Input
Amino acid sequence: MTSRDPLCGAIEAGGTKFVCTVGTSPADMREHARFPTLTPDATLRETVDFFRAAEARHGPLEAIGVASFGPIDLHLDSPTFGYITSTPKAGWANVDIAGAVRDALGIPVGFDTDVNAAALAESRWGAAQGLETFIYLTVGTGIGGGGLVNGRLMHGLVHPEMGHVRIPHDVDADPFAGICPFHGDCLEGLASGPAMNARWLRPAEQLPDDHPGWTLEARYLALALVNFVCTLSPQRIVIGGGVMSKAQLYPMVRRQVLELLNNYVRAPGILEGIDDYIVAPWLRGHAGVLGALALAQRLVREMEVEGRR
Amino acid sequence: MTSRDPLCGAIEAGGTKFVCTVGTSPADMREHARFPTLTPDATLRETVDFFRAAEARHGPLEAIGVASFGPIDLHLDSPTFGYITSTPKAGWANVDIAGAVRDALGIPVGFDTDVNAAALAESRWGAAQGLETFIYLTVGTGIGGGGLVNGRLMHGLVHPEMGHVRIPHDVDADPFAGICPFHGDCLEGLASGPAMNARWLRPAEQLPDDHPGWTLEARYLALALVNFVCTLSPQRIVIGGGVMSKAQLYPMVRRQVLELLNNYVRAPGILEGIDDYIVAPWLRGHAGVLGALALAQRLVREMEVEGRR
Output
């Protein structure tokens, strides 16, 4: 947020649209554009043209961040680093998205999952500032999760796929089979926006506040959060996405998390501070593209430290 | 493993026994002792006396590591750092175990959970060498998990409690209600050694190889492992403990993990290398006390780096 923050480009590469911006911080965003996600050739050409025009107006960008839908390859030493790998999105499997941007614009590209990028943005400017270990979860068309552990983004063998955890599913209470094409009734199969739509035969936002679907939704989300708490012991859980725009879900999820933990994890941060433990993102719909900006600026700083710049 | 490894003490503080040792590496362990876990006063006195006698024979110890049963307080800035906090073990709640050892012997104490310590030992000398992100799980009297993420032990708000994740439980196929006093049918409630004993009315080791209890056990463990894979994306899962001494469980768990993931996580490390992805610990029953040694030696190195030594 200082004047020394480098001018960078940011791409939130989603399955339905690409959101692009240029700036130095959330308070200094200078250009915006959105393109529908068509073929890789067409969409990447529009994206590159936008940044070329932006550079002509604002000067050279020091780096670009790409926050991508996935699965993607994040291994720096892999021949397919920077690729979208096995997506069902037609035409986009095995596309070198980071390489295409880097080669066309001739500047360094920071690359990560859309949810890890959003987590980084919340860590830098939002609801997770100062935390070493937290989870960022988005509940919408899909369910995705990322975050920081020990101060660094969650990678590992691949990257988290938190939407695909298995949770208890009482088929007497909820005979809905789930819609995940891989797993049926995993978390995403039971609790994503499309799952709610398929179960109740209308979009989640059309369910009245007192519809039992909200209690069920809070239950499934709470079961997943409890498992993340037991697995990772995050200092906070930031949870957003289209389904969470129903604000009444937050207190319902918090209450069920406390019930499910049943005082086993005796941390004051949970027992006395649940309202500050399970929270909405601050950056809302902008977390993705701001995350891409944070990826770019982090890359610039890393290169400075390493003397590559 | 070099001659420069410092001579340290190690305490595996368990709910039934304390295992103590003095040495510089797994190949150079000079003294061993075991004490039943009685009252804190009695057991800590025996422990301290052992190390005083060992120092008289082998020279001063540079540090002691304590790998403790829990829950414990790992926050360096907490007034109760080094304490066992809320254990049901009579007399041991709110005991300053690390402080008692440090004050009695006058040397620095490294402190962590028994499972994180075991993970550190497997990382240094065992099945997880060279890995930045992996999980260590032990399935015995209880089920506990720890590991490294981004090269550092898993802490966070408290520390992981992986045994208490909730997993799908088909009560038609397995009407057993689970034995966890907090959660009933969480993973530990369904799949620990005592859970198997309560379900089948005899100890797990007495079940014949073709008993359906093993298939069920593999199913529950696989459900948990799949969730850990989706949450953390570990590079490997090291799983041991008394229940896993039934070696046939490993291929059963691996097969069910692959079935449950159903090709969603397309990592060669899983799809082509499952035998090397879900593995037994190398250090077996010694991982806890060797983990305590690793904690002590890590502390000595940190103090050297920081110039405190």
